[in-house]
């Protein structure tokens, strides 16, 4: 999820209108494929292991891809403004109470449209790394190579499992994944609304509240930044200008970035390839890379949770697993609501 919140935008919505959580919980089950594809988790685990061996970028890229799939796509129903571009711009700037629903966790982020109008070609998604997509496509191919499983497992579920494996095989928690999602059929570039990297606590809370998630969920999910990297363009404005940034860290970043916004730095320089709680210890030291990261420790309303996770890795792991489960329920599709099981994750059937 390298810089998975590094595109963070403001979204004020009510969770009741977004999620229908009781229906979702009833649909999703950890044993959903027990008779359909009993070897599913073993197959995905092996495939992700191979992807991680091929590239150290694959794990954080896959976790970030899951976040962007679940949280990125909004469906706008604007009662007071029929101009779609103006409505989307307003969502990015200040929030809008007229947003009715969120469509997530349906693998729409992976769809490739021939006309170029798809989510991943939105400017806020251009920093998604190809290794994340490749990890999911390889896992899908491995699953479909089993005759019992072929074309019976959704890309959305494979992405959710691959994200868990990316965390677990990097040293993080091995949590159970709820399954039973269907894939979406629609992906449009202009529907993407993400948070941005300079957001403060209120803006972060507003975005995550729109997904039905709490401040604790948000802080735990931000811990996905314990591995991966971000391009200098997401944080260069802070160097020498943000008093919350450790001055030695600022000097280090100044050398790293130089004048090139396409250079990058690790989100957690202490253990950049491991999923652990070093991210939170870095925030305590003023070494948060993104403004939205450092805001979690700079604001006293969230500092206690950051300090708790910095002290207890097991507490972070438990809350991260719970938050990932809740995130995985956002906007889940069913066959009745237009979902399908894609044969190729890149194209609707």
From TrEMBL:
Catalyzed reactions per annotation: 2 a phenolic donor + H2O2 = 2 a phenolic radical donor + 2 H2O
Family: Belongs to the peroxidase family. Ascorbate peroxidase subfamily. Belongs to the peroxidase family. Classical plant (class III) peroxidase subfamily.
Cofactor(s), names only, from the UniProt record: Ca(2+); heme b
Record localization: Secreted
Cross-referenced PANTHER family: PEROXIDASE, PTHR31517
A Pfam family that the UniProt record links to this protein: peroxidase
GO cellular component, one term: extracellular region
Binding site for heme b: 225
Record: residues binding substrate: 195
Function: Removal of H(2)O(2), oxidation of toxic reductants, biosynthesis and degradation of lignin, suberization, auxin catabolism, response to environmental stresses such as wounding, pathogen attack and oxidative stress.
Binding-site residues for Ca(2+) 1, renumbered to this chain: 69, 72, 104, 106, 108, 119
Ranges where the Plant heme peroxidase family profile domain occurs: 27-349
Single GO term (MF): lactoperoxidase activity
The protein's name in its UniProt record: Peroxidase
């Amino acid at each position: 999820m390298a810089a998975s919140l590094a595109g963070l935008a403001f979204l004020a919505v009510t969770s009741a209108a977004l999620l229908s959580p009781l229906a979702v919980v009833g649909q999703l089950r950890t044993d959903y494929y027990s008779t359909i594809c009993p070897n599913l988790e073993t197959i995905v685990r092996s495939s992700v292991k191979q992807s991680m061996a091929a590239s150290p970028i694959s794990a954080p890229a896959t976790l970030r891809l899951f976040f962007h799939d679940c949280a990125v796509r909004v469906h706008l129903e604007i009662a007071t403004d029929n101009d779609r571009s103006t409505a989307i711009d307003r969502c990015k700037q200040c929030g809008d109470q007229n947003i009715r629903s969120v469509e997530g966790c349906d693998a729409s982020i992976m769809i490739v449209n021939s006309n170029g109008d798809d989510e991943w070609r939105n400017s806020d998604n251009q920093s998604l790394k190809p290794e994340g997509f490749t990890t999911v496509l390889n896992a899908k191919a491995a699953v479909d190579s089993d005759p019992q499983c072929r074309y019976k497992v959704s890309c959305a579920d494979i992405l959710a499992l691959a994200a868990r494996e990316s965390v677990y095989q990097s040293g993080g928690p091995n949590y159970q994944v709820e399954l039973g999602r269907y894939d979406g059929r629609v992906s449009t570039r202009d529907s993407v609304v993400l948070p941005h990297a300079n957001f403060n606590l209120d803006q972060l809370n507003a975005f995550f509240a729109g997904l039905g998630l709490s401040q604790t969920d948000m802080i735990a999910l931000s811990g996905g930044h314990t591995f991966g990297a971000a391009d200098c363009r997401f944080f260069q404005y802070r160097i020498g200008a943000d008093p919350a940034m450790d001055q030695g860290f600022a000097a280090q970043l100044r050398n790293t970035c130089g004048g090139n916004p396409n250079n990058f730095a690790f989100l957690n320089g202490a253990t950049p390839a491991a999923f652990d709680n070093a991210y939170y210890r870095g925030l305590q030291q003023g070494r948060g890379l993104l403004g939205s990261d450092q805001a979690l420790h700079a604001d006293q309303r969230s500092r206690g949770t950051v300090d708790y996770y910095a002290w207890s890795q097991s507490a972070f792991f438990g809350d991260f697993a719970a938050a990932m489960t809740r995130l995985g329920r956002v906007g889940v599709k069913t066959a009745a609501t237009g979902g399908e099981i894609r044969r190729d994750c890149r194209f609707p059937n």
